[in-house]
């Protein structure tokens, strides 16, 4: 039997409570994903990511306070021996210029909330190392 993989620790940065709960439930349903924290604003998100050092952060761009772009910038600027947080953007603001800016700030992927929920979940599942359902 192969050794069990460590779960992919994940933080969700989302200001819509209903969508946050939906995302959290769907992500926790993926083998190998553990949601370790959530944040609704920029400062809270940056602090949480700095303290928890999750392997994955799912970031919305429009937050209760501040922006997801600044969260991405902070993640990009973090370094150290504890590893790097990979960021995935999940937002309604999918204009090509915004998408390019997010990727330039180190986002591993960008998914449009309007129609790419399944694609985002498949991407995260691929990161977790769990087989596709």
Tell me what you see in this structure.
With 133 residues, the chain is an alpha/beta fold. The chain has a single domain, classed as Rossmann fold. Helix content is 41%, strand content 20%. It has helices at residues 17-28, 42-52, 68-77, 96-104, 117-128, and strands at residues 8-13, 33-39, 56-59, 86-91, 109-112. A five-stranded parallel β-sheet has the order 2-1-3-4-5, with helices on both faces. Helix 2 (42-52) runs parallel beside helix 3. The longest helix has 12 residues, at 17-28. The radius of gyration is 14 Å and the shape is globular. The chain starts with 7 loop residues before the first strand and ends in a 5-residue tail after the last helix. The model has no long low-confidence stretch (mean pLDDT 90).
Summarize this, please?
With 133 residues, the protein is α/β, with parallel strands linked by helices.
Number of helices: 5
CATH topology: Rossmann fold
Helix and strand succession? EHEHEHEHEH
Q: Strand percentage, roughly?
A: 15-25%
Rg over CA atoms: 14 Å
- Biggest sheet: strand arrangement: 2-1-3-4-5
**Ends distance:** 20 Å
Q: Which helices and strands, and how do they pair?
A:
Elements: E1 8-13, H1 17-28, E2 33-39, H2 42-52, E3 56-59, H3 68-77, E4 86-91, H4 96-104, E5 109-112, H5 117-128
Parallel strand pairs: 1-2, 1-3, 3-4, 4-5
Helix pairs in contact: 2-3
Task: Sum up the structure in keywords.
single chain, 133 residues, alpha/beta, Rossmann fold, 5-stranded parallel beta sheet, 5 helices
């Amino acid at each position: 039997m192969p050794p069990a993989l460590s779960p992919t620790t994940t933080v969700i940065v989302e200001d819509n409570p209903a969508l946050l709960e939906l995302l959290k439930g769907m992500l926790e349903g993926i083998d190998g994903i553990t949601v370790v924290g959530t944040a609704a604003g920029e400062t809270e998100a940056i602090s949480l990511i700095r303290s928890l050092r999750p392997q994955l952060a799912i970031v919305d761009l429009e937050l209760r306070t501040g922006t997801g772009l600044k969260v991405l910038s902070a993640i990009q600027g973090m370094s150290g021996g504890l590893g790097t947080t990979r960021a995935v953007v999940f937002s309604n603001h999918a204009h090509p210029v915004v998408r390019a800016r997010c990727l330039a700030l180190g986002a591993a992927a960008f998914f449009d909330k309007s129609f790419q929920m399944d694609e985002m979940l498949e991407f995260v599942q691929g990161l977790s190392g769990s087989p596709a359902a």
